[in-house]
Write a structure and sequence with these properties.
Elements: E1 2-8, H1 11-25, E2 30-36, H2 47-52, E3 60-61, H3 69-86, E4 91-95, H4 99-110, E5 115-118, H5 130-141, E6 144-147, H6 150-158, E7 166-168, H7 172-180, H8 184-193, E8 201-204, H9 208-211, H10 214-228, E9 233-236, H11 239-248, E10 258-261, H12 266-275, E11 278-281, H13 284-292, E12 297-299, H14 307-312, E13 315-317, H15 323-335, H16 351-363
Parallel strand pairs: 1-2, 1-4, 2-3, 4-5, 5-6, 6-7, 8-9, 8-11, 9-10, 11-12, 12-13
């Protein structure tokens, strides 16, 4: 019996795990134990994703919740360690670059239980980002590394990580995007409620570098207001952003042209991504989903780990320094002709199958 512990805790990980867990369930003599750290504990950020993606309930819910990076990671590591001490696993499977990822990798590596990292090799080359630290450390602790792109494989090779334990598999989020299909009918209901009849810009902001810096946050909100003069903006607000905006004293409800709404479940969010004219985001996952659905994207960061999206012309960077430059980037993306094709940057929709097969093969 192949025993796998899967550690998840945040929205993008629920999406990725949905594809891989489904493939693992189809394998004989494979038993998966799902550990949910509770990094995203809000209903719309957690429970609804499990339901909509048909993920079975977690075997362990740690309910760690918010905290500083050290506090959150430490509490997660301690709680995961207790589970791993109780039962030895053939692999501890972690996803992406969150504190949950790092905690799972640390707990497993110290107990000599092999770590398998899905989405290995990504680099923004900005160590001020906590996600960059998490992904680097996790990669160097991992026994098996599943890279989504050729660039990710090259990054690992430059750091001395190569060989049979590095697998180029594609992106599991692309698997899920293909399985979800067209959900624009859900968007139509949301847009009708907001009295938006035609094109619109979808905005998502949640990274601490943008929300915890009030000057930068005000710049982003001012940019959305400028964009709203030309085209309506739909802004599902992440819980972290809601708190930051309140602390900064920003009254987004009074900004003309910007419809602030509650966080959305996975299917509703996907439907808006499919229907939007442009997406403005600081999310790594949303950048890719925009590409999957053929929607131009503007990323409010200095850099991105998904460099191939910039190179292919489907994404552009707009560092959140000046509201006018952000607004110009978004409106340019709205008016520019789209690239003639979307290359297969993230595989062919079978990443989860390749991952599950590789885990079984390594175990044998």
């Amino acid at each position: 019996m192949l025993r796998i512990a899967t550690v998840v805790g945040a929205r993008p990980q629920f999406v990725k795990a949905a594809a891989v867990s489904r493939e693992l369930a189809n394998r004989e003599n494979v038993h998966e134990t799902v550990i949910h750290t509770g990094q995203h504990y809000d209903h719309e950020m957690s429970d609804i994703f499990f339901r909509e993606l048909n993920l079975r309930p977690p075997d362990h819910e740690l309910r760690i919740g918010a905290g500083s990076h050290g506090q959150q990671t430490g509490r997660m590591t301690e709680a995961i360690e207790r589970i791993l001490l109780d039962q030895k696993f053939d692999f501890v499977l972690v996803y992406g670059d969150t504190n949950s990822t790092l905690a799972g990798a640390l707990a497993a590596a110290k107990l000599h239980q092999p770590v398998a990292h899905v989405e290995a090799g990504l680099r923004s080359f900005n160590k001020k980002m906590p996600e960059e630290i998490n992904r680097i450390v996790t990669d160097h602790l991992s026994a098996v590394l599943f890279a989504p792109t050729a660039a990710a494989v090259s990054n690992l090779e430059r750091e001395g990580i190569a060989g049979v334990h590095v697998k180029l598999v594609g992106d599991v989020m692309y698997d899920v995007a293909l399985q979800v299909g067209d959900k624009r009918d859900r968007a139509a209901a949301i847009l009708k409620r907001l009295n938006i009849a035609s094109e619109f810009v979808l905005a998502t902001i949640h990274r601490p570098e943008n929300t915890d810096n009030y000057s930068r946050l005000r710049t982003i909100i001012a940019a959305l207001e400028q964009i709203g003069h030309d085209v309506p903006v739909v802004f599902p607000m992440h819980p972290r952003t809601t708190g930051a905006i309140a602390s900064a004293g920003i009254e987004v409800g009074k900004i003309r042209g910007v419809s602030v709404i509650e966080p959305l479940g996975y299917l509703d969010m996907i439907s808006l991504e499919q229907s939007a004219s442009v997406i403005v985001t600081d999310s790594g996952g949303v950048q890719k989903e925009a590409f999957f659905f053929g929607t131009p994207c503007v990323t409010l960061r200095q850099e991105t780990e998904w460099v191939e999206l910039i190179d292919s012309g489907w994404n552009r960077l707009a560092p959140p320094e000046h509201a006018a430059s952000i607004a110009t980037s978004v409106l340019d993306a709205l008016r520019c002709e789209l690239p003639p094709e979307r290359p297969h940057l993230y595989g062919y929709g079978n990443a989860a199958e390749l991952i599950a097969s590789a885990l079984v093969e390594y175990a044998n």
